[in-house]
Structures are given as C-alpha cells and as structure tokens.
Amino acid sequence: MNGRILQTGLAIHCENLSHYYELDGEEVLALDNVEFSVSAGESVALLGPSGSGKSTLLSLLAGLLRPTSGQIYLGPDDITVMSEPELLQLRGQRIGVVVQNPSRNLLPYGTAEQNISFAQRALRGYRRIDLQSPAELLAALGLSELGGQRVSRLSGGEQQRLSVAVAMAGSPGLLLADEPTSQLDTANRDLVGELLRRITSSFGTTVVVVTHDPAVAAALGRSVTITEGRADDRDQQREQYVRVDAGGAVQLPPDVLAALPPGSRLRVVRKPGGVEFVVMAEPEHSGGTR
Ligand code: ADP
Ligand code: MG
Q1: Do 250 and 115 have their domain in common?
Q2: Is 8 left (phi over 0), alpha (psi -120 to 50) or beta?
Q3: Does residue 2 fall inside a structural domain?
C-alpha cells in the first residue's frame, strides 16, 4: 500500500518535574515537583494563573529546556537524558509548536503553502515519506483558501490558523501551543478552537494547549490546572484571569459580576510592576462628600 502513515500520538509522563531559572544569581522556582501525564492521542488544556509555570512546562516538553530535576517521558523515552542531537531530531520530527504571536510562527514573505513546504524541508534528511503535500494538509485542516496567499496579506486569525497548520506540517506526535488565541478576537478564537477540534478528532496527535480561552478549552478533551509550590493553593484558586477588550472593558466571571453589578465602582491603583483594582464599598447614601 502506498497510503500515508500518520504518526501516532506521543504519550507524556512527567515525574517529580522541577525547574528553577537563575536570575541575577537568585533561583526562581518555576515548577515544583509537577506530575503530569497525557495519554497518546489525548488533548489537554493547560490552565493556571500567570507565572505558574505553564510556558516553562511547554518548553520542557518541547525539549527546548532541560529541567533542574525530574523525568519527562515522551512515549518510552526519557527526553531529559537525550543528547542535543537527539533532542534536535525529536523536535524536528515529532513535535509541533505554536507560540502566542502569529508572526513569530511564520515567514511573512512566503505563501501559506511555502511556509508548510519550508517546515517540511527540514524533515527530508530524516527520510520522512509519510508527509502530506502542503495543499493536502491545508485541505485536511479546512484551510485550502489560504494556500496561495502571502502570509503578510493574511489577518492575524488566518495567520494563527496557518501557524497551527505549519506546526502540523511534519505530522508530529505532539502538538504544543502556548496561548495561541490570546491576541485574536472572538470570531477568530472560535475558528482556532474549531481547527484544534478537527486535529484532536481526526489526527492521532497528542495536543497540549496553554489557554484561558473557553472556545479553545472546549475543543480539547480535558483541562489540567497547574499550581506550583510557592503560593498558597487557596489563593491560586481565588485568582483568575480576565481579558481587557479593545474598548478597555473587562468581562468579569459570573460570580464576580453578581457581587459587582454594572455601575459598581473600582479604584485603580497604579503600582510599580502592575495595576491593582480595589472594590469600593458603595456608600449607604449616594451624593455624599468626596
Ligand atoms: P506562565 O507561562 O504560567 O505565566 P512561566 O513558565 O512563564 O509561567 O514562568 C514561571 C516562573 O518562572 C515565573 O515566576 C517567571 O517569572 C519565571 N521565569 C520564566 N522564564 C524565566 C526566565 N527566562 N528567567 C527567569 N525567570 C523566569
Ligand atoms: Mg506563559
């Protein structure tokens, strides 16, 4: 038979995984003894507050960082003991990555198909004969209309869908995406969600996506929340992320909206390194002194 063999998904198993960064001679704890497992072909949304180590975990899974301690099995192999050439081959052959900023995933002057061919060119040395042509891959992903278009002409949403296609160009066993929709509007977030749903249902690829986007999380089979050793777990559960829209408005979670109905006032406190919102108690009698 000369049918194309899609690679099967890679199972993930992380044990006692810890990672520290060194910053100005200080150790910064990013991951503290994390256990994380994903079955082959499963899809997972990775949630957690900012700074909880989600991007670090994706970089470790991609073999771009070596952990301070612990094991990372992708399939049967512990990638923490692989040599650099072995890791390079693993990344090239078996792992697809999508980052937040669409333009960082793509070559702007090429067409959509050329971007896919370029990603596949690197795989020729590995004698990969199982790859779909760029046009076939785009068709399988429902993105045929992008084929001949230049990346610089595509909208941000189209670019990010193409980024997912480029990450799938090598028919990877593992697709990793770090907040792929955080820079997109609602309609485009939904389209990326649809694309991920298509991948999880008809490709064998294991998929891990860091996201705060309900449309994306809904496309994936399971959600995992990372909590890390530094902060009180209860505090972390109380923390949640909301997005500021183009007009400067914020969508509050329903329980918070119930406590802060429209018209509520917040005090905006500018602080070094951030902004804090303080809920002001409603005065008993409005129209009082200020
Ligand atoms: P998330 O993606 O969940 O926001 P990260 O994995 O980016 O979290 O970061 C986890 C922790 O590690 C944070 O405290 C962050 O400040 C720190 N960190 C991330 N990257 C670096 C780096 N290159 N150098 C030093 N500290 C880092
Ligand atoms: Mg991050």
Answers
A1: no
A2: beta
A3: no
Question: Whose Cα sits closest to atom 21 in ligand 1?
Answer: 21
- Pairing between β-strand 266-271 and β-strand 274-279 as defined by DSSP bridges: antiparallel
Angle at alpha carbon of residue 205, lines to 204 and 211, rounded to 5°: 135
Q: Is residue 6 part of a domain?
A: no
- Per-residue model confidence as pLDDT tens digits over 59-91: 999 999 999 999 999 999 999 999 999 999 999
Q: Which of 22, 26, 46, 55 to mutate to test the pocket of ligand 1 (most atoms within 8 A of CB)?
A: 55
Residue 200 CA to residue 26 CA, distance in Å, equals 41
Residue 284 in domain: yes
Ligand closest in space to the Cα of 180:
2
Query: Is pLDDT at 3 greater than 80 in this prediction?
Result: no
Residues 160-182 pLDDT 10s? 999 999 999 999 999 999 999 99
Whether residue 4 lies inside any domain: the answer is no
Per the CB < 8 A criterion, the answer to whether 20 and 27 are in contact is yes
Q: Are residues 103 and 216 in the same domain?
A: yes
Which ligand number lies closest to the CA of residue 52?
1
Q: Is the pLDDT of residue 250 over 80?
A: no
Q: Are 206 and 41 in contact (CB under 8 A)?
A: yes
Same domain, 64 and 95: yes
Residues 102 and 181 in one domain: yes
Domain that holds residue 194: 12-232
Ligand 1, pocket residues at CB < 6 Å: 21, 23, 28, 30, 48, 50-56
Give the position, in ligand 1's atom list, of the atom nearest the Cα of 53.
6
Q: Tell whether 87 and 119 lie within a shared domain.
A: yes
Tell whether 227 and 274 lie within a shared domain.
Answer: no
**Alpha carbon nearest to ligand 1 atom 27, residue:** 21
